Each structure stands twice: as C-alpha cells, then as structure tokens.
Amino acid sequence: MWKDFSRLPGEHIITWLPCCWDNRASSLELEGREAKQLGSLSREGGIDKAIGKKAQALSLWRQLLSSVRERYPFSKDVVCRPGKWTTMERGIQYLRELAVREMVYYDPDNTQLPADPDEVQCTQPMWRKFVRSAPSLYANSLAVIDWKSEEAPTVDEVAGNMKRAFFPPSLTGNDWEKHPIVTGPEDLCILGIDYLRKGYFKDPKGYRWAFGIAALEAEKIEPLSSLPGLSEDPSVVGLLRVEEQQVPIATTTVHRRQYRTNRDSLVPIHELIRQLEGQGVISRTHSPFNSPIWPVQKSSGEWRLTVDYHGLNEVTLPMSAAVPDMLELQYELKSKAAKWYATIDIANAFFSIPLAAECRPQFAFTWRGVQYTWNRLPQGWKHSHTICHGLIQTALEKGEAPEHLQYIDDIIVWGNSAEEVSEKGKKIIQILLQAGFAIKRSKVKGPAQEIQFLGIRWHDGRRQIPMDIINKIAAMSPPTNKKETQAFLGVVGFWRMHIPNYSLIVSPLYHVTWKKNDFKWGPEQRQAFEQIKEEIVHAVALRPVRAGPDVKNVLYTAAGENGPTWSLWQKAPGETRGRPLGFWSRGYRGSEARYTPMEKEILAAYEGVRAASEVIGTEAQLLLAPRLPVLGWMFKERVPSTHHATDATWSKWVALITQWARIGSPNRPGILEVITDWPEGKDFGMSPEEEVTRAEEAPPYNKLTEDEKPYALFTDGSCRIVGKHWRWKAAVWSPTRRVAEAAEGEGELSQFAEVKAIQLALDIAEREKWPTLYLYTDSWMVANALWGWLQQWKQSNWQCRGKPIWAVTKVTITFHAFELKDVIASRSAIKLLPLTRKPARNMTPF
C-alpha cells in the first residue's frame, strides 16, 4: 500500500496527488492512527505530520488534500511542474494536475463541490495556463478555442474533445498523397491554415494526414540557447569583473518602517532573502537608514524582492541618464527591416554589479526583525538602471561587440540570414560571460524570423502586438473602480500607435478616472471598453521605416470635434497603397477647444510634424496632407486678426513647420503640402445605384439537396516562404465534379489568397451561368466580409477605422452577374443569387 501512495524523489506535489487519486485513495477509509502508520508518503515533514491529524475516519484522499493545504496555506505556493508538455496525453495529465490544485483549496465543508478531479470545471484561468504550457504544435489551435456555453466544461469533457480534435503526430512526411479537401463526421470548429501548420496525425484506420504547410522552410540552425556557458539555474547571479562601484550617497538619513505587504508574498520573499544572503548579494547590517520591502509579483507568478526607495530617491543627488529612450530604440529597430533576430537577457544584471562598502548602509531594509543591506546594485533605486546600462555598454564596447541594440540588460541583434545573426549572438554572449555576467539558457532566443523584444513582437521590421497580449486584453473584464480603469488604460495605452483615434475612443474611460468625478460605469464607458478591445484585436502591424528618394512619406492630419488626429504612411514605387508607420491622436487641451477651425487644422499639422520627425527624421521629405491647406499660413508675415491661439503658440507652430519646410533644395523642399483625399475619402468608382448588399444564409453542405450540391464550391488560400519571398496559392474545389482550379503567385499573404479563391469561384459560376452559388470557406475574415461588412464598407468609402480595406486594395473582385444578397451561415456557408438587373462594374483599387 505504501508504494501506491508514496511520492517519488523529486516529484512535484501536484503531480503526486493525481497518482494517489488514480490508485483509489478516495476509497481507502482510515482513522487518524491508521493513516499515521503508513509512514512518510509525501517525503515532506510538514505534510506527513498533518496526515492523520484528525481522529475520525476519513478517506486517504481527503486527508492528503487537507494536509497539503495546511502545509501550503496559499495557492500560489503550490507550483505545477514547469516547462511545456510534449504529447496530448501529458497535456491532459497537466490539466488534471491543475484541477487537483483547485481541489486542494476547496472549502472542505462544501459537499456540492466535485470529489473527482475529472469532474472539476475547467475555468478560464486554468485553460489559459494549459494553453501557455502547450507546445507550438498545439498552442495556436488551442488559443482560438472558447466555451460556447456560460458554464465551463469539466476537465473530462475537455480531455474528450481534445482527443477527438488532435491525434498522435507523425514525424515522417514521406510518400504523402495530396487531397484538395478532407471532410469528417464532426465540425467542432473551423481552423484556418495558420492554426494547422506542421499538424500531422494518424487516423483510426492508420492513414497519415498533414494539414496546411510549414510557414517557414529554413535550414537547420543551431539555436543560441545551445551554446556552452549558459546556466540552467533559474536564480543564477553573476559577478561583474570591475571595481566596486562608488554611487551617490543620500544627503540625509532616511528611516522608514516596514508597512504591511501581500500575505501571499511572505513565504516566497523569505526564501528569496535566504537565497540572496547565501549568494552574497545581501548581508546583515546595522544602519540608521531603513526602507520598506515592496514585493513585486512577476507575470509568471514568481516574486521579485524590491525595496521601496521613494524616500531615499528624494534625497539622492542626480546623475546624467544614459538609458536610451525606448521609443527611439523601437524606431531604430523598425528601420533595420531585418529578416532574422536574436535576443539575449542578462540574468539578475543588477545583482551582478558590486557596490563599494561605504555606499551600502543607505540601502538597508528590515525583514522579520533582522536588518539587511545590499552588497550589489539594488532594484528600485533611482540610478540603478543608469549604472547597469552603462556598465553593460562598456563591457560590450570593450569586447568590440557587433552591431546591436541594448536597453539596460536586454540586447537584440539582427541580420539578413540566420547564420549572420547566430555569429553576432555568439560573439555578444562570449563578451558578456567573460565580463562576469550570467545568462540563463531560457533567456536566449533565436535566431528566428519573429521574436519578442521590449514587449513587442518583431517580424521583418514590423512592430506588432504579441498574441498573448491581445488575448490578455480581449479576456479582460470591465473595471469596477478607478484603479482598475487606470490599470486597463495603462495596458492598452502602450499600443496606442497601432490604433487610429485611440484618444477619442478611450476618452469616456479617462473621464471616470478623474479625481473630481465619481466612478460611474455607464453606456459610454461600456461601448468604449468593448471598442478599444476590438481595436486591439484587429490592430495593424507598423511597418519599418524605409529611406530613399523614391519613398514618399505622407502625413495625414485632421482636426476632429474632440481633438486632432494624424497618421504617417510610406509608399514606394509599385505599391498600390501606403504602409502605416504610426497612428496618433489626443484630445483638445485647455483653450484649444476654442480655436478657430483653421487653427485646429494647424495644431493637428504641428503635432503630426513633431511625431513624424521622431519616426523618419527631418532629413526626409514629408508630404503633408491636411484636411485644409495650412502651409500657406505658416509663411505669412503676420498672425490673422481672428486668431484665438496666443502669439507664442503661433510662433511655435511657424518655427517648427517652416524650419523643416526650408530643409533641402528648392526643387525638393523638406515639407510639401499635397491636396489629396484622405484614405477614408477615396471613391472606388462604384455608382450610387450599385449598392452592395449582403450574402444569404446557406445550410451546411451535407444539408443541401442533390439538385443544389452541383452549385457548391469550397475555397482555400495559403502562403509560404520560398527563398526570400512569400508565395501564395488559391484553390477552389467542386465536391460533385471532384475537380479543382488553382492560382498562385508571389508577394502576398494568405488573406490575399483567400480572397483570390473567392474570385476563382465567382469566375466559375459566371462562366457556366449558374443560377445559384454556394460558397464554403474556412476563412473567418472572408466569411464575415461577405456576411455583413461589404455594405458597411461601401457606406464608409471602403474604409475600416480610417484604414483602406485590404480586400479592396489588394485584389480586384469582379461580381459579374452575381450580387451579394444577405447573411452568412454558421460553418462559413455563403449563398449568392444572380442579379435581375445589369451587373455592377468591377471594384477597382485606388
């Protein structure tokens, strides 16, 4: 019996408990004395001591749960096994472990709660942890799955659906037989090609299947994380080989008592202090200084030991800041437009920098009656970032490091090939290790074509919002107080450059955070909250800055009712539309709301020119496209008599704009005003009587009659990298005739191919004069476009949130003798009916 319930050496507690359940610990009733006779089951004294503490007869399962809860009173102290699961079976076991962790902290007196881990509801937090721990083979597919019902499914139900949706992977891809389409008995959800990359499985008959294509066909490149000298220790600390640092000493003694901290942090912080003392990072002391501990919880759930040095910072002499501006680093990285990246994050960089003995007493803090101080550079002090950044920069310069960007202890390298990036990364890692820094293996990423740096996802020089951030924001619940509203605005505000009219959208949310206002969450706030989340989900990637005489930089500015907006675009020869570099907006401040319309337009142009100078510099020519001509006012000798802005404000406007305008030659001025339509003012050549209506709902294919099935077509589109170029392919398939048509080309992505496939289907229906067309697509975007967006797009001049509709500008769709009539069905089935009047002309891109 002891073998069935004993914990293995090194086994996680939360892994051990499900094994006890599987060995029928719930059916074994033991009195307290009998339970103690089992001996040490958990290999942990605190848990074993609590087993059998109650005299009455209880199941061993209940005794194990209560003993773990008594030993670890806080749920965050019980950690599930780290790392990613590798097979579906292990993934389901990990999900059961999360369920057992929930059960440990159940109310023991509540008999309504499930006693079986498989009957525990899979809550959204559990599901997010499960998805984050999934390997890339499954993660993208799992991330888009959501519960359809209000009540969360049980762990057993989730596991059953997982087994039906995923199959054991086959690592060999030889002798594949290609099929244009695969059908199955169930359609739980439709997954596009982006979620089925590299997905291989064997069906119950033993046949092997492959979905989609690999997004990247690259040579096998050894990752930088495989280099020798990198550490596996999660708490590793280096020691920089420099003299002990003399840092500014406070001009006045500061002594502040410890305030109450988060109860969940007590045990982790105590362990951290013991660990840091053993590593020599801190030591015991007696000092007149004292600052309170301020524990900070990381996104991973771990705790960081920081000290609240606000009082000390106020009496510390200033230093010249050497840390670069994060936004400038982002602009510089965008300008590289690299194909490959690698990032390096130094482990505990602050704790690697030794302090001179006479500088240490001012950093003292107290924990459980014992005073400590830092022997290394502490976190939370005002000059720590500057000192750390400077020492790392010096070490890299001394070692003649290759081209890179550095923000304190985060470093990124780039290049046009994986080999180039690998060599740069190896050189920088060697320099840092020789200098005395430590680097964790898990904190070295790349070479890769897509990477995360400074919290931003980078690909081909494009600045994108990471998918985990999008999912986090999309899952946020409405705030219930001012503090939660401010926290939400802080999260979404970091990505404001991706969102046209950001300030105007979130204005109702800022309104409830003002001190003079009570917190009232009304219809305006609800609408703004949902709209900004929707904008984040559909945010565009900001493209890299390009240089050259043929590249046009176009700045669109406008003065709206509530504030100015501006956006910067670049357009190169041969491109049908510009590429966005950034979107900005703000509300009117103070007296700006009383400006004349012309002054408001000049204000918008001024703010836009300021922003553009930070992105493209002042050497490039800027095409200024305001709603009203404003450049002429800047070169007038006097201010108009009807102005509301002060003379000083006018002087500021004139100085900035005319200074840039005069840069360059007379034939190529620095700023050139262009009278052009705004992107949302474009007309795509359709006459007013040619109204675009919507598609009609169609049933699933297996519900069509035998007479209807010949008019059904399935479409799909995909893309991949071949060499250095994207290749796309669009296909349409007839299940009754079992024939397919395809088109392919270069330079576009899968969304373009999806629309191109629709065009192929329309061509077939027109060519053969079908009375009806039933379209089936796995593209959510195409389905929604044909369902409900086309009419709205037409009414907004083929714009969506101020941006040109890519489906219109990327491909010319000829509707021929078919008109989109009503609504799209579930399972992405679209029914198109023929026109009863003359056909509409083609939609053409601008």
TrEMBL record:
Domain Reverse transcriptase per the UniProt entry, residue ranges: 277-458
What is the top EC class of this enzyme, as a single word? hydrolase
- What does the record give under GO molecular function? RNA-DNA hybrid ribonuclease activity
Q: Name one GO biological process term.
A: DNA metabolic process
Report the Pfam families cross-referenced here: RNase_H, RT_RNaseH_2, RVT_1
Q: Which InterPro entries match?
A: DNA/RNA_pol_sf (IPR043502), Rev_trsase/Diguanyl_cyclase (IPR043128), RNaseH-like_sf (IPR012337), RNaseH_domain (IPR002156), RNaseH_sf (IPR036397), RT_dom (IPR000477), RT_RNaseH_2 (IPR041577), Viral_Replic_Matur_Polypro (IPR051320)
EC number(s) per entry: 3.1.26.4
Which family is it part of? Belongs to the beta type-B retroviral polymerase family. HERV class-II K(HML-2) pol subfamily.
> What's this protein's name?
ribonuclease H
Q: What is the lineage of its organism?
A: Eukaryota, Metazoa, Chordata, Craniata, Vertebrata
